[in-house]
Amino acid sequence: MSEKVEDIKDAQIDDYSHNPSIKGEELGGPEPTPEEWKDLPEVGDTIPLSAFLVILIEFCERFTFYGLTGPFQNYLQYPNPPSYPAEQPGALNKGHQVATALTTFFQFWCYVTPIIGAIVADQYLGKYRTILLFTSIYFIGVLILTLTSIPVAIENGAAYPGFIVSLVIIGFGTGGIKANVSPLVAEQYRSQKAYVKTLKNGRRVIVTPQATYQKIFNMFYWGINVGSLSSIATTELEKNVGFWPAYLLPTLMFVPCIAVVLLGRKHYVQNPPRGSVFVEAGKLISLRFKIPGGFAACKPSALALTHPEIAANVTWDDVFVDELKRALKACVIFCWYPIYWLCYVQITNNLISQASTMWTGSVPNDIMQNIDPLVLIIMIPFMDRFGYPFLRRCGIHMRPIMRITLGFFFAAASMGYTAGIQSMIYKAPFSGGDILGVKRDISAAYQIPSYVLIAFSEIFGSITGLEYAYKKAPQSMKSIVMALFLFTNCIASALAFALVSVAVDPKLTWMYTGIGGACAIVTVLFYVVHHKEDETDVEEDAIGRDNAQVSAGQLKRANATIDYEVEKAAS
């Protein structure tokens, strides 16, 4: 065993001495010249196979998550029907406000827990082991929800407490996965340098990390939305058979998720946990306010000249200072997202309830939410293969700030349109002329543009947010910065919770108008404040480990990775 461990250690040391992220060596071709940057198109690199395995994990998890949550609003809001198929499926009969409050709480909880998962990953277990741990917790919650939704459990009052317990456990499990799976998929791509490549047709292009990460996160988000189509099946099962088979289907689908996590463990690129990263970042931020000169003065190279007594005790290197500064700038960008997510969250509860008051024919009211992922499944590959490449050929590179601005704009437009539809609903007569009827004489097809506009907002706003969170975070803080981005969703859920009191007739028109108006204001302010940052995006992304300086901090990280791999081999 000792010989095997030594062989692995030697191989790891050799890998670090040739790692392009540390040495800055060319990968695939020469670095582009300034003239080539002007003349050649920018393209993404080939996505590694291991990245597709991580996308498969996310597909299975999202299949389970959306398959479960798709029927939540009806499960909570409406009473248990006497038989199935049912005109209006339900189980717990808690009403619109309670249903909206609980689904909003669930959204809130799902975006608090990524912080816990990020801390566990970045400081203790690493991303892979953290995903494995939280997957097990997730599965326990899924089983509780399924078992307490069977008819005998509903009849004996076990369904509601079972539902509450399962919400807490599932939210905890999904949060731990969320914080780590998107950084893990991006880590499968290792090149950090742009290079010139000649295609088979003789055409020369520049392969860049920026375009590649955009491509990876497009594929990742595409996998999410393919998985989310499970709610089509579960809402049909809910209407025609009952809630227990609607929950059983995603429960069974979670088994392949666990299998992919376990069987693919040898194929993933895994970065070890840093350990003291939060302490280190805290000390650096504290020092930044104690000495003049900002972050630049806190670099070990600068401290060695100005404060040698401090320089002797710091544990970070010059590059970590630049990385942390870049990450803090990213967190400022995230501060604008809660209003955007407040628009998005409406499609998971209030728009479902809105559809229940409209004519839906023979389809369940909560099936309408699947228009959003269907549009995304079509448009994400289109933008990746045609839209963005065409814009790049025209000299329009659509850097992150511009894309996020467009995302905010489409979200505001969606809420403005939804407000108009709600006004039409109030003016429409009740179906059959019965003033006591539930349905209005207006087709739920009017909702389609609301979902289409939200889908376009995700292409530009949500996907870019994931990409931005990964690219701007230091290597040792990928999970925590991703968790902070996801936490903006949590703030939006808190805002939505505050709006529950106005999520009732006849106030809904004004609620949608207010949300849409707030997002429109945010759109303008965001672009005015941040648009110049697109000019430095590529330069900031190039911050990394240069081959000329391998600092003490880098060697510590290299040794940490070596020890981590040796420990895995020994076990």
UniProtKB/TrEMBL annotation:
<feature type="transmembrane region" description="Helical">
    <location>
        <begin position="327"/>
        <end position="347"/>
    </location>
</feature>
<dbReference type="InterPro" id="IPR000109">
    <property type="entry name" value="POT_fam"/>
</dbReference>
<feature type="transmembrane region" description="Helical">
    <location>
        <begin position="160"/>
        <end position="185"/>
    </location>
</feature>
<comment type="similarity">
    <text>Belongs to the major facilitator superfamily. Proton-dependent oligopeptide transporter (POT/PTR) (TC 2.A.17) family.</text>
</comment>
<protein>
    <submittedName>
        <fullName>Uncharacterized protein</fullName>
    </submittedName>
</protein>
<feature type="transmembrane region" description="Helical">
    <location>
        <begin position="480"/>
        <end position="504"/>
    </location>
</feature>
<dbReference type="InterPro" id="IPR036259">
    <property type="entry name" value="MFS_trans_sf"/>
</dbReference>
<feature type="transmembrane region" description="Helical">
    <location>
        <begin position="404"/>
        <end position="426"/>
    </location>
</feature>
<feature type="transmembrane region" description="Helical">
    <location>
        <begin position="244"/>
        <end position="264"/>
    </location>
</feature>
<dbReference type="GO" id="GO:0005886">
    <property type="term" value="C:plasma membrane"/>
</dbReference>
<dbReference type="GO" id="GO:0071916">
    <property type="term" value="F:dipeptide transmembrane transporter activity"/>
</dbReference>
<keyword id="KW-0813">Transport</keyword>
<dbReference type="Pfam" id="PF00854">
    <property type="entry name" value="PTR2"/>
</dbReference>
<keyword id="KW-0472">Membrane</keyword>
<feature type="transmembrane region" description="Helical">
    <location>
        <begin position="446"/>
        <end position="468"/>
    </location>
</feature>
<feature type="transmembrane region" description="Helical">
    <location>
        <begin position="510"/>
        <end position="529"/>
    </location>
</feature>
<feature type="compositionally biased region" description="Basic and acidic residues">
    <location>
        <begin position="1"/>
        <end position="17"/>
    </location>
</feature>
<feature type="transmembrane region" description="Helical">
    <location>
        <begin position="131"/>
        <end position="154"/>
    </location>
</feature>
<keyword id="KW-1133">Transmembrane helix</keyword>
<dbReference type="InterPro" id="IPR018456">
    <property type="entry name" value="PTR2_symporter_CS"/>
</dbReference>
<feature type="region of interest" description="Disordered">
    <location>
        <begin position="1"/>
        <end position="36"/>
    </location>
</feature>
<keyword id="KW-0812">Transmembrane</keyword>
